[in-house]
Structures are given as structure tokens and as C-alpha cells.
Amino acid sequence: MTGSPARTLLLWCPDWPVLAAEIVDGVPATGPVAVLHANRVVACSERARAEGVRRGLRKREAQGRCPQLTVVEYDPGRDARAFEPVVAAVEELVAGVEVVRPGACAVAARGPSRYLGGEEAAAERIIEHVAQSCLVESQVGIADGVFAAGLAARGGRVVAPGGTPEFLAGLPVEALGRSALADLLRRLGVRTLGDFAALPAGDVLARFGFDGALAHRLAAGRDHRPLAVRQPPADLTVTAEHDEPIDRVDAAAFVARALAEQLHERLAGHGLACTRLGIEAVTEHGQELHRVWRHDGLLTAGAIADRVRWQLDGWLSGSNGRTGARPARPTSGIIRLRLIPDGVIAQAGLQAGLWGETGEERERAHRALNRVQGILGPEAVVTAVLGGGRSPADQVRLVPWGDERLPARPGPPADAGAGPAAGRGGIPPWPGRLPAPAPAVVLPSPLAATVHDAAGEAVVISARLAVSAPPARLVVGTGQPAEIVGWAGPWPVDERWWAPVEARRRARFQVSLADGAALLLAVEAGQWLVEAIYD
Amino acid sequence: MAGRMVVGSAALADLVRPASAPDPVGGHRVLPVAPELTGLLPNRGLRRGSTIAVAAGQPRRSGGTSLMLALLAEASRAGSWCAVVGVPTFGAGAAAELGIALDRLALVPDPGPEWATVVAALIDGVDVVVTTVPAAVSASVATRLAARARQRGSVLVPYGRWDGADVTLQVVRGVWEGLGQGRGRLRRREVTVSARGRGAAARPKEIKVWLPGDELTRVIPRSVPSTVRRPAASLALVGRG
Q1: From CA A282, how far away is CA A286, in angstroms rounded?
Q2: Residues A98, A230: contact at Cβ < 8 Å?
Q3: CA A123, CA A106: separation in Å to the nearest integer?
Q4: Distance between CA atoms of A431 and A240, rounded to whole angstroms?
């Protein structure tokens, strides 16, 4: 409480919500623009102000004064997002920035003013740098304390050291930013901050409460609150540069292992762990390969090294991988390898099972499956996730082992595999879904079949779902005809008719054959298909 | 003294058991199976290290896959890790309905020419390994895989022809219920499963189960009236005489 408040430099961008709307949404701030919150104007552009639009006006009133007014809804997230580059630009010049609110940020003035040669020079330099790097106009005010600096920034003033009380004394009480208090003070005959500061502090506390007492301190220029400096996010990326290009997978894997250890150490040093990892490799000729790997558990150093190896294996040798999309072979060796941790979360430590065994078995199984992935490629080991859908094939999504288990379509909860009871509750309605039991054999691509009636004629389903005759014999592909002893259907499914490319109209049948087999058949565009077998 | 002997033997009766009964102490060596299938297996479960084959059966398949899934279900639910190799047509919906935990089930749909290496790697870390048997598997490879499973304590479930399995389960017959002429839907299937094997499982067994059943798979009681009523009838005869 002793001594004068810290010298503070405050950078203020006038009409920030309007500027943010221009930066993010592309609303031109040179035209008449007003940002509204709860039907009241919270900010407006220069043109709009010239037309008589003011803060606090209703929408109708503002539009009455300025008929061509562009109205933008207030979005604090947009304001904060757009302000981030400005803060970053200020941080390039000075350390320890506090974001007072989107559109205003404060720094301690002592360091930059000595470093950049005086307070005015520092202010000019910062304004220029922000204007050049973000194309944003701003003003700087320097005074003792954040509150006074904020008011000084409105006029772009540098208040001399120790002159803050005099500077504040001439300002109206509305400058406190407390409209109810300002209204009351005005009615009591207190019109300026100087008048307010002259009141005895004890009486102000008794009459106006704690907030009033705080406002009184601010008005008197005794703003002792230190800056709440933001911590810039730590840079967790690790990079390995090589003068000699790497063109062999084992050499790259060796580098990757060391790099993974380094990343792991850095993450652990910050108490973090990552769930997504970007691996970026750059060749001598400037080709880049970037891939993001997801991981449901936490990526250990070994797991990171594995993923780097898989990715580079597919790229460098051009042989691995059973999936189609494969990048072309690079024309030169890799000179830079970079690991970018993406989904970073605070690590709470590895939770072992209650008796230690669950974790151990899980480890063992993961090791074995990772090894198989090493043999066959990452996409060769998959795990099934049940989701929503109408056909048995739609309901299942196969995700590579280790990736996040997300269903393709919203369906039953993720733990539906835990038991038959879990699979039945909480399923979104998929009308036309097949009833349980589900077929045990789902053919990845349906087999063509023909179905005949007792007279040997092909069974036809009309557009109105009329069956021409009861099906009696089934021929799958070019096989032997089998007798149909029971059948049910047609169960129509008309999916995605609004998207002509994906539209699918089918009628499904269940049939049981004389030899005990049961099949799921579908008719699509007159063609019979075997979709699944109830094996 | 004699009284004490009697009390002692009565107390021992709980502790002593016939050698053929399952071993409760080594219970963790046996993974559980659904109660209706326990009768088919020599240890009333999947003994770790054993090879339990599921024969693919007739050309038109009827029940083999469901039997394989039913065999896994209880172990998977109890927390075991399972892997299925070489089944690209795996019906995950049916597996979940039978109670298999899909997040502990890994699928290798297409192992390719590396089949033996993949299966061996899985045996090292996964409790139950189900695998289809490629046509050209030499006897020595099969023996080595079975030996590896025995050593690592995994259960190897070959799905197809496999000589030298401890038990071979086979679906003899499957009959679906619930489907009429143009109406109804598939509801449940009566499956006759036979078990042949070596050692303790040498005597062929055959049971009938609902697979899949309406709610849960159940053993179909065999000729209920004759087995239950006969003791009552003989008692009545004794009373009259």
C-alpha cells in the first residue's frame, strides 16, 4: 500500500467489437456498424457514431438514426479470438502482458520505456508494431496504475509520473465505469473524480460500501493492483535437423526414438501428456509429409517412436500400408523431423487397476497388438465400434487399434459391448433397423443372388412393395439352388433420398433355408443381394 | 473318539473332492464360458494353454460363427482380451449381443502370408486368440503354435479344421425358429453342438442350446418328462408294496 502505483502502459483499440467483427466475419468497419447485446448497442463504428448512434441505444432507435446501419450480434469469444494476434504482437516487443479485456492490454511501462528509449518512444514503437503486424489501429496511454492508464489511452496521453491524481481530478465520474454509482454521485453534486476523491475515505466506505470504496481509491489515483500477467503457452514442439539427409527407415526410426524421448521429457516436465501427435517430416527438396495420429491412451515414448516409424516406413519405402491413399515417394532424404503434440492434457499419472492386474494385462495385450501393427501396418489391426444405422454393416465402424473409438453414426453408448443389456438402452431411433438377433456374418460386399418362386419365375418386388410370388428357391452366385422354407419381408429402407449420390432404396428379407441356414437378403434396383448370414 | 472321527470326516467332506471335479484353486487358470457350454469342455471353461477348435462345419454354414462368439463371450465379459484373426465377415453386432466387450476385442481381418507370425505374436499377449486356419498350414506350424499357447497360457481357438486340438466343438445341426411364410422374424435357433477331444474330453458329448436365444442362450432340457417323473413313480411303487 505504500509508494505510488506501478507505471503502466495500456494499449487500447477503439471500438474493438466492431474491429473484431471485421477481422473474423468480414463486416467492413469503415461503414456504419453497431454491435448489439440484448438489443442494446455496446459498440459502434466511427461512421455510425457520426450518424448519432451511441452506446446503450435500442436497436430500433439506432436504426432510426442511421437507416443503413449494419447490425452485428455481440460475441465475446469472437472479440477474444481476434485480439489474440494483437497480444502476440505486443508480446514480441515487451514481456508480461495483461489482457484487461478484449481490446485492451496493459504492460508495466518501466521495462519498455528504458529499453526503447523513453515512454513516448515505447508507445510509438508499440503502436507501429501492432499496426504493421495486425493492421489494427490502437492508442496507448501511460499513467500510474491500470485504471488511469486506461483513461489516458482514450486520449492517447502520457501522464507524467506523479501527475495521475491531477489528471484524474478533471474527469467526470462516469469514467469510473459504474453507472449506478456515477448517477448517484451526480445527483449528490459530485461531478468529477477530483470531487469524489476529496471525500473522506471512511465516509465513502460507510455510504457506498466496498465497491464504492474501491472506486474512491481509483479516483484518487491509488490503483495498487499489480498486473495479472498472462503466461504465454509453452512451446512443446521438438525438432531434429539433419545435415545429412536420412533416406533409410531404420535410421529415421532411430532419430524418431531419440526425438520421442525428448518430447516425452518435455511434456513430463510441464506435467502434460498428449493424446494427438502431429508428425512432420521435411525432405531436402522441401516436400512435406504431415500426419496426425490419434491415441486413446496416452502416447508413451515407445508409442511415439512406433508411429514415426510406421509413417516414415510407408513414405520412404513406398511399400507398407494396405490402404489406398499413399503419398508419393519423396525424391530426396529427410532433413527435418518434427513432433507436434496436439491434444495436450494435464497428466494425472497412470492409473493401474485395483489389484494391479488389469493394467498389466492391458499393457501385455497392447504390446502384442502393437507388434502385429508393426508387422502388418497400423490399419491391419482394427477394433469394432457399434454405432447407429439400419443395416448390420452400417452399424459397425472398424477403427485402427489405438485410435479413438468413435462410431460413424450416433448410436448406442460407447460401452454397448459391455453386455446385452447395455446394447438395448438409449439407442436413437433408426426406423427400419433390423431387430435382434444380429447376423454373425456380415459380408463386406454383398453377394449377388437370384430368387425364384415355386413356378420357377424370378420374384419381383414392385415400387409399392408388392411381392410378385412367395419366394421358393434361392441361388447365390452360381451355386446350387436351395429351397426357402421360411421368409419374412419386404422391410423397406429408403435412406438419404435427399442426397442423390448417396441415396439408397432397398427392401430387406429374412429367409431360412431347408438346410438350416438363415440369410438376410436385400433387393435393390431389381437385384437380389445377400447382405449377411445368420451363422 | 468315534464321535470325533465322524465330526472330523464331516468337516473333511467339504475339503475333499473327486479328482474329476473342477479344481477351484486353479480357477484362474480356466477362463469362464457361458454356463450352458460348460458341459462340453473338460474343465468347464477355457483352460489356459489349451487348444479348443471350432469346426467350421458343413459348406452352408449354420451356427459355427455364433458358437465361436458364444465361446468368447463370458471370458471377454470377465475382462479377458480377445483377438480374432482372418475373419473379414465378423459381425460385431452379434458379438455385442452375445456379451463380448468390443473394446477388448482386436480384429485382424486379413493377416495375409504372415499368418503364423501374427498368431504367434497375439498368443504372447492376448488371452483368447481365435483364428481361421489357412488351407496350407503344415502340421509343424500348427504344433508350434499350440505349444506356444500352452507355454504362454493363452487359449487358442482355431476356427476350421485343426488336428490335435484338446477339444473340437462342432455344430451338428441348427434350426431357426420364428420365421413363417411371409411373416414373423428370426427369433432363436436350436443348435446341436458336439464335442470330441483327447484325454478328459475323449468321451463324445452332445448338447442342444438356443444360440442365439430369445434373451440368453440356454440349454434345452433333454426329454424332461421321462427323467423327472421316474423317481416319483418308483417311490409310489415302493409305498404300495
Answers
A1: 6
A2: yes
A3: 12
A4: 54
Extract long-range pairs of A165-170: CB within 8 Å, 24+ residues apart. Answer: A165/A194, A165/A197, A165/A220, A165/A221, A167/A143, A167/A221, A168/A193, A168/A194, A168/A197, A168/A219, A168/A220, A168/A221, A169/A193, A169/A194, A169/A197, A170/A194
Helix (H, G, I), strand (E, B) or coil at A81: helix
Q: Which residues of B touch A375 (CB under 8 A)?
A: 114, 117-118, 121
Are B175 and A516 a contacting pair at CB < 8 A?
yes
For residue A203, pLDDT over 90 is answered with yes
Is the complex ipTM more than 0.95?
A: no
Q: Which pLDDT score is estimated for B16? A: 57
Task: Inspect the interface and report whether the beta carbons of B107 and A384 lie closer than 8 Å.
Answer: yes
Q: What mean pLDDT is reported for chain B? A: 79
Q: What's the predicted TM-score (pTM) here? A: 0.61
CA distance B164 to B190: 28
| pLDDT exceeds cutoff 70 at A19 | yes
Query: What is the Cα–Cα distance from A468 to A451, expressed in whole angstroms?
Result: 11
Q: Which residue of A has its CA nearest to B188?
A: A437
Would the pLDDT of B238 be above 70? Answer: no
Q: Mean pLDDT over residues A88-100, rounded?
A: 87
Residue ranges of A 467-486 with Cβ closer than 8 A to chain B: 467, 470, 482, 486
Question: Best mutation site among A323, A357, A372, A395 for testing chain B: the one with the most B CBs within 10 Å?
Answer: A372
pLDDT mean across residues, chain A: 83
3-state secondary structure A446-500: EEEEEEEECCCCECCECCCCCECCCEEEEEECCCCCEEEEEEEEEEEEEECCCCC
pLDDT tens digit sequence for A214-232: 999 989 888 877 877 776 6
The answer to whether the beta carbons of residues B158 and B54 sit under 8 Å apart is yes
